[in-house]
Structure formats: C-alpha cells, structure tokens
C-alpha cells in the first residue's frame, strides 16, 4: 500500500513539475514604431505614433499572415481616455520593445501547429475605441486624440509594403475591443488585398449586445 501511494505521489509531482516548467522560447517579436504615420494624423490617444509587434514567417508559412488586433475595452469618458493616454493603452512608448507571442501567435510548433511559422503581427491597441475613431480635432480640454481608424489604416499600409499585399493566406483576428474591430474592419480590409488568395476574419469574443 505504501509503495502504491509513493508511486502515485511521484506521478502527481511529475505532472505538477511538467505543468509549471518554463517553456522554451527561441524568438521574440520586436516593436515597430510608425513614426511616419504621425504626419498622416494616425496617432494614439497621446498624439504619439502607433505601433505593432512583428515576428516574421519562415518556410511554408513565409507568405501567410496572422494579424491580431489587441483588446482592452473602451474609454467612454474624456477623463478615462486622458488616463489611458499616459499608459500602455494610449502610449506605444510605454510598451516593451520586445515581446513573446502566445496562442495563435505562438512560434512554437508544439503549441501552435497551424500558424507557428506564419508572419505574425500584434497591433498595439492605443486609441480606446476599437480602432474606429477619426476625429480631426484634438480634444481642447484633455489634449487627447481619437484617430483609431487612421491607426488601423497606417498599420495595414506598412504591412503591405512588407509583403502583405502578395500573401497567400491572411487572417485578421482580435479579442475583446480588437474582436469588434475585426468585425467592423473585415470588409474594407479584404478590399485592400485583391491579390491575396484567401482573407479570413476571426473575432475571438467581443460581441457588444444592445439589450
């Protein structure tokens, strides 16, 4: 009985160690600052440049793209947007210059066998309104700018120049506020990729119900 208990305990300990063992990561994504977008009015809440993390594809995935729009809810009040503009949800310079991807953006074949070697992009969410704002005037009370739609367009422009225009497969995805942006931008995004064989949009949560 004691030997059987010891065996079961050893198995449990092994499982715990396996679950908590650090994952081996071989690559990280780097943050691209779109300074050139500022002159086009494509800016974050704080008036600074937008940005995205990119991990380039390889092998059979070199011509495929997974573009992920970050979530992070909305800032419905000017005071809340002002607070956002001072941190990582409104200021790209508050973000780390390097980041590791997980989920559908993971570069580990074991954890992400379908998309591990695709070009993977994580678009920084910094406008507070699901990449939808297009207000020309800067808020005179808070000095906050609402230009999320222009941010989205600027990111797409930059990715087109990096090979997105000639891709074979493209998936636009997002969660929470990014999922709503995926739904609302899907058609116009697809229209900008006439040479791409397949364009799909995946909203991973983010449905806003009027009830």
Using brief descriptors, characterize the structure shown.
alpha/beta; globular; signal; cell wall biogenesis/degradation; pectin acetylesterase activity; Pectin acetylesterase
Number of strands: 7
**Number of helices, where a helix is a run of at least 4 consecutive DSSP H or I residues:** 4
Tell me, what's the shape? globular
Which structural class best describes the helix and strand composition?
A: alpha/beta
| Helix amount | 25-40%
**Low-pLDDT regions:** 5-21
**Integer average pLDDT:** 89
Measured on Cα atoms, how large is the radius of gyration?
20 Å
Distance between the ends: 59 Å
List the helices and strands and how they pair.
Elements: H1 2-20, E1 29-33, E2 51-55, E3 64-69, H2 78-84, E4 98-99, E5 119-123, H3 148-161, E6 169-175, H4 177-191, E7 198-204
Parallel strand pairs: 3-5, 3-6, 6-7
Antiparallel strand pairs: 1-2, 1-4, 2-5
Signal peptide: 1-26
Enzyme class: hydrolase
Keywords: Cell wall, Cell wall biogenesis/degradation, Hydrolase, Secreted, Signal
Task: Describe the structure in your own words.
- By secondary structure, the protein is α/β, with parallel strands linked by helices.
- The relative contact order is 0.18.
- The protein is globular.
- Its EC number is 3.1.1.-.
């Amino acid at each position: 009985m004691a030997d059987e208990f010891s065996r079961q305990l050893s198995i449990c300990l092994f499982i715990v160690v396996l679950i908590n063992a650090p994952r081996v990561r071989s690559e990280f994504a780097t943050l691209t600052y779109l300074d050139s977008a500022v002159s086009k009015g494509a800016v974050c809440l704080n008036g600074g440049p937008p940005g995205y993390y990119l991990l380039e594809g390889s092998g059979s995935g070199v011509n495929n793209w997974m573009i992920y729009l970050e979530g992070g809810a909305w800032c419905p009040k000017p005071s809340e947007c002002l607070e956002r503009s001072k941190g990582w949800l409104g200021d790209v310079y508050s973000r780390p210059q390097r980041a590791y991807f997980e989920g559908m953006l993971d570069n580990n074949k074991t954890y992400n066998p379908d998309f591990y070697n695709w070009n993977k992009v994580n678009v920084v969410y910094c406008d507070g309104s699901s990449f939808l704002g297009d207000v020309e005037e800067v808020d005179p009370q808070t000095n906050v700018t609402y230009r999320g739609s222009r941010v989205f367009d600027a990111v797409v422009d930059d990715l087109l120049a990096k090979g997105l225009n000639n891709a074979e497969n493209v998936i636009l995805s997002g969660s929470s506020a990014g999922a709503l942006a995926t739904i609302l931008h899907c058609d116009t995004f697809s229209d900008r990729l006439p040479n791409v064989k397949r364009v799909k949009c995946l909203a991973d949560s983010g449905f806003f119900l009027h009830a």
